[in-house]
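Hello,

I think I submitted the FE2/S2 (inorganic) cluster job twice by accident. Can you confirm which output corresponds to this input? Input:
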Amino acid sequence: MTDEREITLTVNGTEHTIEVEPRKLLVHAIREDLDLTGTHIGCDTGNCGACTVLKDGEPIKSCLTFAVQADGSEIMTVEGMEDLPEAEGELHPLQEGFREEHGLQCGYCTPGMIMSGKALLDENPDPEEGEIREAISGNLCRCTGYQNIVKSIEYAADELKAEPATADGGSVTAAERFDGETDFDCGVEDCCGGPSADGPIEGADPQFDDVGGEDT
Ligand code: FES
Ligand code: FES
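Support: Only one job matched these inputs. Its output is below.
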């Protein structure tokens, strides 16, 4: 008879109650029971860091933790990054950094690198290069070397510093970006397409609307 325990994990903000054997590793629970396969398994022995997730805000190697040990905790995986306010509905600056700075090749180590980077920037928004290297020292990459990974995390730090409106969990609205005399009100259905267009210009091909008009 299989001995199973009921545990509750809040993963990326959603609470899940699952039954697991006491010997089940957290990484297997995340991947198999919750179907969140962004968290990778590279070694299963705590060496590679591919399985790094945040547990109550701290980076852990989920292959070194039994799922039952995480009962009641908040887990964040790479899938949760796009839901953070600073992602503004798109990629999180860390994800963007890995794309812009060529911080990945095969991508196998990337989720773990991103979660280690997230833990670092949460604690230290303006890290020195050496601090970044230390933060990712438990994460191995077989493809890129580490230079571009460091640059990717630096990119994210710069982006996050440049987005003060996200510090309070908010974001810069389109209306704020285009502040002025315009009554531009994006974010609603049937958006007019920009502050310069009060409506379609009569007789003009819509694709050549004067987006550089006097209102901009
Ligand atoms: S799979 Fe966990 S450290 Fe490699
Ligand atoms: S990008 Fe391939 S292992 Fe890091």
